[in-house]
Design brief:
Elements (H helix, E strand, L loop, with lengths): L1 H39 L4 H24 L15 H37 L12 H30 L18
Helix pairs in contact: 1-2, 1-4, 2-4, 3-4
Length: about 180
Amino acid sequence: MLSFLRFLENINEWIGRLVSWLTLAMVLVTFAVVVLRYAFDLGWIAMQESITYLHAMVFLLGAAYTLKHEGHVRVDIFFRKLPEIAQAWVDLLGALFLLLPVCGFIFWVSWDYVLQAWELKESSREAGGLPWVYWLKTLIPVAALLLILQGLAAMLRSGLFIAGVLPGMEREHPPVGEEI
C-alpha cells in the first residue's frame, strides 16, 4: 500500500514540478509582449493568447500538486487545534464526500464539452489566434482526474495513519499562521 501511495503522489509531484516551468515561460512571454508592444509597436494575437494558455495550464495541471502540498485555501480555525487522528479523519472524509464527488462531476460534465471541441478542432475566434483550443479544453477533465488521484492518495495516507501503519501525517507544510 505504501508503494501505491508513493506512486500516486509521485504522479502529481512530477507533473507539478514540470508545470512550474510554465510560470517562467509565462513571465518571459508576457515580458516579450510588453517590450514588443511598447518599444517596437508590434503585437501578435497568438503571442497574447499563449499567455492565457500557459496560465490555464499552470492552474489546471498544478491544482493536484498544490493539493498534495496543502497549498489550497482551507478554513482551519478548528482543524489545526484537532489531534492528528481527528485531522486524518477530516482529511479522509473531506476527500471522500467533497473532493472526489466534485472532481467526478467536473470530469463528467466536461467530457461532452471537450469532445465537441475535438470534433470541431476548435481554434481561436480571433484572426491570427492559436488553433489548439481543443487541446486546452482537454486539460479540464485531466485536471479533474489528477485531483481524483491526489484525493485517493490523501485518503490512503489518512487511512494508513488511522490504521497505525504510518507514524504521523507527515505534513510537509505547517498550516498558515504557524511557525516553521
